[in-house]
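@channel anyone free to eyeball this complex?
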Amino acid sequence: MAEPSKGLLRAQEIYQDRSHRAIELREQGKKIMGYLCIYPVLEMMTALDIVPYRILGDMREPITRADSYMPAVNCPFLRSCLDLGLKGKYSFLDGIVTTHICDVGSSLSGIWNYTVRTPFSHHIDTPHTLHETSLQQEKGLLQDYRKALENFTGQKMTTEKLKEAIRVHNEQRVLVRGLYELKKQDPPLISGVETIQVIKAIQSLPVDEGNELIREVISEVKERSDGPPHKSARLLVWGSILDDTAFMEMIEGLDANVVMDDTCVGSRAYFDDVELTDDPLDGLSRHYLMDIKCPRTFRTRDYNDVRKDYMTDLGVRFSYLRDYARDWKADGVILESVRYCDTHGYDVPSVRDYLDSIGIPSIYLEHDYTEGALAPFRTRVQGFLEIIG
Amino acid sequence: MTTEAKPRALNRLKSMYALRAEVDKMYEGGAEASEEGKPVAWVMLEGWSNAILNAMGVKTVFPENYSSLCAAQGVATPFLDRSEAEGYPTHLCGYARTCIGYSSRMVELDGDIPPEAPAGGMPKPTLLVASGEVCDARFKWFQSLGRFFDAPVWTLESPSPGLRERLTEGAHERNVHFLINELKAFVAFLEKLLGKKMDWDALEYTGGGTNEINRWRWEINELRKAHPGPMNTRDFWSAVTAALFRGAANPDVIAEGFHKMYDEVQERVDNGIAGISLPEKYRLSFEGLPPWHSLGFLEQLAERGWNFVIESAYRPPRPVTVDLSKYSDPMERYVRRRYRSLENSLEEDYGSEEAGMIIDEILCDGTSRRMGLKHIRDYQVDGVVLHVLLTCRSTSAGLNLLQHRLLDILKVPSLVIEGDIIDVSAFNPTEALRNAEAFEETMEHYRKVRKELGMPW
Amino acid sequence: MVRIYFAGIDLGSTMTKIVIIDNDEQILAYLVHHTGAEHRHLANRVMEEGLEKASLSIDDISFVMATGYGRINVPFSDHQVTELSCHARGIASFFPNVHLAIDIGGQDAKGLKIREGKLLDFVMSDKCAAGTGRFLEVIAATLGLEVEDLGDISLRSTQKASVSSICTVFAQQEVVNHLSGGIPLEDVVAGLHDAIAGRTARMVRRLKVEPDVVFTGGVAKNIGVVRALEENLGCPVLVPEEPLLSGALGAALLGKELTLKALAAGETIQTGKRRLDKATFFE
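replying in thread with the prediction:
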């Protein structure tokens, strides 16, 4: 019998056929819970032995069914998710958890319930701000979410189980950060393309299997001699969802390596840990509301401050990008977002202002989540590399 | 021989003009207020902050309305172009981009109101009150204005739960307290910013005043169920801005204006007069935000006998008497007066039996087949226009599903007209009118279908 | 004196351009051919023609630089650089004080922010026909006119008509409506030019409009669009004598720079295999 593959090869296999393991586990009696975006609290699923499974789109699959239920002037990634749902590609899910990520994301939750009709669904109305009241509200919402999951499984979510789940998910965060450390080298030991494959793979597996996979990848990559070649430019990619390697392949096909990212099939879910508090919901609500640095959250240093200046505000919102660029030695930043993504769209000029203020060159690429439309970006990215070279 | 001017197809209400004139006054005094050092807040339209700000003596300005005013006067394009020049993607909300362009222009003029700005323009803000409700633009936009102004931004949160989650035990009370605490935090912030205390009596007063306005608006809408429809959507849009944007500042005058409108509409109902001058061939509903730049489009449709008798956006809330006797905290009274539980709202709108069915649907499926279609039934609508907007995702996202539901459940067809709230280049009336004849045939067909099924219209 | 030669080839989706220069930057040969579906693989033939015109062989050329849409797989080039950098370099050689360059070709439009001949930033539009030469071609065909005649016709206009700039198909409909409504042809054509100029101006304002502003590409030959662009930008617009030259010239100049840099450092110049074979684009 053939040895099961490991490490990067296994990650690539899962990337190509994500649902294989989830369907296997379901046949063994596990419950599989789909979730949209990185705001649903995964620890609370794991605590009840539910397998979290990230709902993603497929940019290579033409959208044919979703247009009946969602206008074309909406985020193509979310339309693709709905399209796959309507085509039965998510029929193995026992449930779906959504949050108030953005307008269309929230709307999708209702449309999914109406059309795809996954048996269980729950929507967490995550607040937008970091007000003290918002934090309390988030905790209250997680209490309702806990009740809903307990009803769904018929099990009690004890504090012990939840604390253990937090520990294992935090372990995953540490492991992912460990993997990203290896991208600090020149050339990085793992490419931007491979990173997406690994992250997408772990977002398709139960957390402990995901942790095992990352450990394998780390030890393989540390010893490898076939890693990315040295290139003239090291880049950071910021923006909305990149759940397919095509965009990265376009960039890394040029004289550049993508050494760091701030995206959600990327670093965003993994760069802060959940604090272990006596009532675990305190640590979870703080992490999921406050730590994740997606533009859907309105972030200020002190929301009670009656003074305001733009550059200070930019620093509060984006200084972590300076740290990323410094620590991963990025020469430039590619900002990308899908067309019709409002949350990232409004931020683009501000992020660029911030990067200008600290002397880091950037370029903005707006794409429409199709593989075919990426070719024109080659010229733009190469032009950018010629400018910074 | 002189040629007579073609009579207008839309039959405008006289009372509408007085209300519209109130809105024109809204921008008066803005420049003076700013020069006198009076605090000026740019505010999003939501149900909460306006009365609070007025009670604290803050001049409120509404960029959402100002943008639609620019569009209606055909002067939004230079601001949109400016926004694009500043690097903002062109798919962002038309209201936001017009305002961003306006703000950029103000910076070019060292903070002065642009001389080309219509109606006196918007003065520079000392405070921006963003909103976490309804859509993302309403806080991302004001956050992005930091590029042009150093005014602090407060994003006012309010709950937007899913349907089933809203029915979870304890959720409603938690949401009420979330609102109360959030608004109290907002007041504390204002007190710090303005160096003065909140006038709670004034808040109690404006809260009551706006209720009166909504009550008249509700009654007018009840009259609009008549055949023929006595008031066209065009008049509704022209008047609604008075309620939304002047209500808290001038509640008595606005309430009186709507009272007069009620009398005029009642008279039309008594005499069988319609909101269009031609015979009412089709009764329609307009779903989505208005095409502010091309409101005259409804005139062209009225020429075909299309009477828009109702619309989805900006509908007045049902006036209910809420027993506030056990609540003494002024903010709690303010919140509980407005924020209703889903069970209560459904009960009031649909009656116990149907409300019960809707609640069962929601608990089972997380959604409802019946909810949200009542106005189509009540107004006996033949066809629905769905205004899918290039730059407004929150109002457009649900329209395709709505098209299915209208046909499946009520046998009412709908016509999608693509456009934008501000950007006239996204709207193609020629194309839309080309589809009108075919849509009339569809509406005729479904009238027959409904008749065969024994439906009341 | 030893003369060395450099060649630049700009394989656009509509036109293929070749420039051969010497080390004094004198242009020895310059050619423009339609690329088109049949001919796009035959850039080698254009190269051969250029070499013949300059009385040189391929081995006489120290560096062949390719640019343009088809730059990746040119078997006789030594290196490829984007048309963004090449246009910047080429335009600056004609207009050293250029700050903003606008290039409107058959299928795309670009704005380039340039300082002292160096590209600093850019904007591009290549997703749809509106705002490109194709826009004018389609509408000219609708009107039964030649594209080359549009410029002069528009100069006779006294009141330009309003034409949508967001979509070629919308614009076509509007043009037909205007004419059937009795609006004079020259006013409609002036409106078309205003539409394309307005769209271009909106795009390039992201880079800030500062003189000198230079306009290149096939559409720059249309005097009507030049005037409309000046009106929309509010400043004079300069057009080189041969507006299609800048990409290929810039490529040759960048090839020269790379060569001289290598020579000064005592390094060997990296050249390609120089097979005068067909180009294969991205297949």
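from a first look: Chain C touches chain B at residues 164-166, 170, 173, 177, 201-203, 205-206 (CB under 8 Å).
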